TrEMBL record:
It comes from the Bacteria. Residues 4-63 form the Glutaredoxin domain. GO terms for biological process: cell redox homeostasis. The keyword Disulfide bond applies. Belongs to the glutaredoxin family. This is Glutaredoxin. The lineage of its organism: Bacteria, Pseudomonadati, Pseudomonadota, Gammaproteobacteria, Pseudomonadales. The keyword Disulfide bond applies.
């Protein structure tokens, strides 16, 4: 299965929702907390072009934030992208 990477902070409710959605599908993820690892925030901005969290990637494919992840799941594309 492909690697799902989430850039998050500890206090972000959207980050918790994204992690919950992935966990409910049995999808493991690599979480990078940009609050505790400030250098990773710059990495996130370079990769996504955005400063807000969560920012979600499947391998090197940029998914976006929570709304984008939820939409991908509703359309049936999430699990197929991971196959």
């Amino acid at each position: 299965m492909k690697t799902v990477t989430l850039y998050t902070t500890e206090t972000c409710p959207y980050c918790r929702s994204a992690k919950s959605l992935l966990a409910s599908k049995g999808i493991s993820m690599k979480e990078i907390n940009v609050q505790t690892q400030p250098a990773k925030r710059e990495e996130m901005i370079k990769r996504s072009g955005r400063r807000t969290v969560p920012q979600i990637f499947i391998e090197n494919t940029y998914i976006g934030g929570l709304d984008d992840l939820a939409k991908l799941d509703r359309q049936g594309g999430l699990l197929s992208m991971l196959a």
